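[Primary structure, fold]
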Amino acid sequence: MKKTFLGTFLLTAFLLTFTQQSCCKKAETFEAGDKTFLLNGEPFVIKAAEIHYPRIPKEYWEQRILSCKALGMNTICLYVFWNAHEPVEGQFDFSGNKDVAAFCRLAQKHGMYIIVRPGPYVCAEWEMGGLPWWLLKKEDIWNSY
């Protein structure tokens, strides 16, 4: 099950990367330079804000992204909450305000970069730290993970 979630997440991340590369005129490079990050070979400072997309109604996402941009941010950090996306073992939900791909595309539309932190444990004062409740029903949980 952990592998299933991770596989689904990696597929989503791949699709986001593919979508960004296919819609943009030029692929960007990002690397660690000497005492700085480099974006397309130029020094780049990450100015990041944290947004928990599942906590915000989808209708307000754009306003929150634009507010971050107005504050001078160029990057949005986000957690992917496992328990929000797999509330029942094997049943995934990426709809409504859980649509992480739509959130990332909206941020990209406004020239923002994304740092994704998939967990599985995310804390963020979120129920069970983002771990799904159904893990507690697994007798061998300590031996499986």
